[in-house]
Amino acid sequence: MYPHSNHQTDKPILDVREVSVRYNGRDALENISFHLHVGERIAVVGPNGAGKSTLFKVVSGVLSPNAGEVTISGSQPTAHSCIAYIPQRSQVDWNFPVSVADVVMMGRSAKLGPFNFPKKRDWDFVGHALETVELANLSKRQIGQLSGGQQQRMFIARALAQEAELMLMDEPLTGLDTPAQEGLLDLLDRLRADKVTVMVATHDLEQAAKHFDRIMLLNKKIVAFGDPESVLHSDNLLSAYGGRFRTVDGNNLVAVDDSCCDEGEHD
Amino acid sequence: MSFLLEPLQYEFMQRGMIAAVLVGIVCAVVGTYVVLRGMAFFGDALAHTILPGIAVGYLITGGARDTLFWWALGTAIIAALGIGAISKQAEIKEDTAIGIIFAGMFALGIALISTVRSYAVDLSHFLFGDVLGVSAHSLWLIIIFGGIVLFTIAAFYKEFLTLSFDPILAATLRLPVNLLNNLLLCLIAVTVAISLQTVGVALMVAMLVTPAATASLLTKRLPTMMALAAFFAASSGVIGLYLSFYLSIASGAAIVLTATSFFVLAFAWKKVRYT
User: How close are the terminal C-alpha atoms of chain B, in Å?
Assistant: First the structure.
């Protein structure tokens, strides 16, 4: 009963054409155009306030752009329930009285349709999703009892239960220690087999270069978009970040003085 | 035993007891969402905002109680959707806007009622409730409309849960977010209307918030939280009415004080247990 469009497989999974968004009279995104193919791994990097979250909201159809158009496999985002938006952990109420399995089951709300309660098939879906992200043994835990990495994996399980084909992850690596980051990125690599397309907003240029097919350097406009070697140039980074970065070695490995916390662009 | 049975000889005590239990259960279940979504101030404001509607009904019908429910219900639904719409605009902060409307409407209600010469008793019933004055007719209205509220919460359980936990997920799943939000506001409005006679507008927020908050201290699962909240609210109704009968204190206040005591006990128990 809730909308779900059929995919036209000859169209890109995501096509963004000349999209602009204004927030309170200020430009948040200016004239963004790009498209993604099924199964791609994209890292979106840029300074705080660059419009990463705004871009994800437009792509997921939660926010309508002031100009331009977004299509998912040939039709409007609002016609699809296959887009998963995985929130920043700081945006989630971790005291909410739900278990891990409850949260993953929420991903099936649309598939279930109004008035229906979960059936065995849905619980199987949830169980399978939790196994994929290696949380099956924690399914009955209250969500606040999970570690940061487990919380991110729970949301990936929710996206799998949703049968998501496009996953948008807002700063999933922020606040995780290195083993948890590696675990999460390995999991995303394993999901390649399922042809899930993934866009990840991150501050970590090194992880972006290592684990993603293409990198989008964003600062209200697309500064550069392509494979990591061609994007992570000093010139590009300088124009995206201004003076707030420094080169670590003679090549293109760069550390950005910006790996911090709350983004000003959230409302 | 006669201590417990004696008050129940009176038909008004029986009706009051049933009303307090039913209203408590409905308030507690709806109140779970009020607590989880941080809508306590909205609930308090909504309860106060319906006073002018009740006042107009009171003036038109010359004080007949049984029709007041419909005035309360109509005003509550209009007020809930109105406050919901106003709190979305960006000119003034949401809580400020609600505060202005709520105090203004409340004052208007008092002004209207005060035009009747002997208004004090009726006004105090509207403010603090008169559960022992519940008629058989009112009891039926509580049963029917309380049933509708509980049925709707059950029917849209997963939608309300998803929307409350993660509104962006609800939007990306293409659930009808605005419709569901307004439906929840209407359910709170109906709950306010059926609770009017039990606790009155001034104490209503306690029935919406206190039992649910008590339950939230004791469990980390939503269905359990709803059940526990309903249990605390129903018990508060029964115990409160006995206290009211034997200590001769106002019934609404006695019910709310019992609910508050449950909260304090749960809070203290949790502090002792986890420190």
Answer: 39
The 10 Å CB-count burial string (b at 16+, else e) for B34-48 is: bbbbebbbbbbbbbb
Residues of A with CB under 8 A from a CB of B: 2-4, 57, 60-62, 78-81, 83-85, 87, 92-93, 96-99, 102-103, 105-107, 109-110, 112, 114-115, 117-118, 142, 144, 158, 162
ipTM of the complex: 0.86
Contact criterion met (CB below 8 Å) for A232 and A62: no
Q: Which of A83, A112, A142 sits opposite B172 (nearest CB)?
A: A83
* Contacts of range B261-270, beta carbons closer than 8 Å, 24 or more positions apart: B262/B210, B262/B211, B262/B214, B262/B232, B262/B235, B262/B236, B263/B210, B263/B213, B263/B214, B263/B217, B266/B214, B266/B217, B266/B218, B267/B217, B270/B217, B270/B218
Residue B233's H or E segment, with its range, is helix B222-247
pLDDT above 70: residue A244:
no
Q: What is the dihedral of CA B172, B178, B181, B187, to 10 degrees?
A: -140
CA distances from A141 to A121, A154, A215 (A): 22, 11, 36
Under 8 Å between Cβ of B223 and B231: no
The neighbour count for residue B78, using CB atoms within 10 Å, is: 14
Q: By the 8 A CB rule, do A113 and B176 touch? A: no
User: pTM, whole model, 2 decimals?
Assistant: 0.88
pLDDT digits (tens, 9 = 90+) for A218-241: 998 998 899 888 887 777 777 777
Q: Across the interface, do A3 and B174 touch by the CB < 8 Å criterion?
A: yes
Name the β-bridge partners of A21.
A29
CATH of B2-269, one of 3.10.290.10, 3.40.50.10490, 1.10.3470.10, 2.60.40.1120: 1.10.3470.10
> Which chain A residues are within 8 Å of B179, Cβ to Cβ?
none
Q: What is the pLDDT of residues A80-104, one digit of tens each?
A: 889 999 999 999 999 999 999 999 9
SS3 category, B86: helix
- Give the integer Cα–Cα distance in Å for A74 and A196: 17
Q: How far is B15 from chain A (nearest CA, A)?
A: 34
What residue type is B240 in one-letter code? G
Give the residue from chain A lying closest to B91, CA to CA: A24
Closest CA to B34 of B43, B47, B46, B25: B43
Instruction: Write out the H or E segment, with its range, that includes residue B122.
Output: helix B120-128
Nearest residue on chain B to A89, alpha-carbon basis: B166
CB-count burial class (<10 Å; 0-12, 13-18, 19+) for A198: buried
d(CA A242, CA A45): 14
Closest CA to A225 of A40, A75, A72, A59: A40
- Show the domains of chain A with their CATH numbers: 1-82+165-267 (3.40.50.300), 92-163 (no CATH)
